[in-house]
Amino acid sequence: MKSQGCIFFYFLLFTVACSPTPGSVRLGPIDFDRLIDEQISELSKHRNTLEKEAEVDGHRSDSTLVPTEEIWKGELAIFRQLGMINKPLHQGSYRQEGPLDDPRSNLKIQQYVSASSPLRVLRIFYQESIEQVRRIEGTLNETNQLYHNERKLTLEFDEGNGKAVLTFYGITGRQKVVLRDTVRFSVNARINW
């Protein structure tokens, strides 16, 4: 009986010692925090011009600016929500599909679909491998007793110096608050390199 306890103890110790730590496991297809941080660094370093169109319920606004690092952080913060696919809470809730052929281009698509996560659909368009990302689309859908919010987030990349560089981002969606009309909005931003 005593030897069985020792065997179980050593088995448990071996299992824990050989298990990777949560921080060392890449759960999802892309580390979105790292991707966004790298883009902010590159855009800040090169002082790229940003041409931005925003529209809320038919009221349009255009602007052109050379954002600082702090402004880029604010501009791209919403795209960190795409990283929820990497959270342990949502593991197992996504159905992975792909690689699929994109009928509009020569790119491949890796698609992730969930009925239970706020990030309902994530599509990654790439060339030869997922590291050669050219476009990312995510659909966020949040509903509670007070509002319904639906947003489509888009990031587009080109290749520069052997790595992906952000050239466009967009947000389109609608929000319905209880006892109010639905508000439709969009932001389209082009980055000049």
What does this structure look like?
The protein is 21% helix and 45% strand. The chain has 3 helices and 9 strands; from the N terminus they run H-H-E-E-H-E-E-E-E-E-E-E. The chain has helices spanning 2-18, 32-46, 69-76; strands at 49-56, 59-65, 95-101, 108-113, 119-126, 133-143, 147-160, 163-177, 182-192. It has a 9-stranded antiparallel sheet with strand order 2-1-9-8-7-6-5-4-3, with helices on one face. The protein starts with a helix and ends with a strand. Residues 1-27 have low confidence and may be disordered.
Protein topology:
Blueprint: H1 2-18, H2 32-46, E1 49-56, E2 59-65, H3 69-76, E3 95-101, E4 108-113, E5 119-126, E6 133-143, E7 147-160, E8 163-177, E9 182-192
Antiparallel strand pairs: 1-2, 1-9, 3-4, 4-5, 5-6, 6-7, 7-8, 8-9
Helix pairs in contact: 2-3
- Give the overall shape, derived from the CA principal axes: globular
Cα gyration radius (Å): 21 Å
Arithmetic mean pLDDT: 87
Count the DSSP helices: 3
Instruction: Specify the structural class.
Output: alpha+beta
H-E order: HHEEHEEEEEEE
Query: Considering DSSP H and I runs of 4 or more, what fraction of the residues is helical?
Result: 10-25%
Total number of strands: 9
Major sheet: arrangement of strands: 2-1-9-8-7-6-5-4-3
Please give the alpha-carbon distance between the first and last residues.
Answer: 71 Å
The multimeric state of the shown protein is: single chain
Sheet with the most strands, sense and barrel status = 9 strands, antiparallel
Fraction in beta strands: over 45%
Low-confidence stretches: 1-27
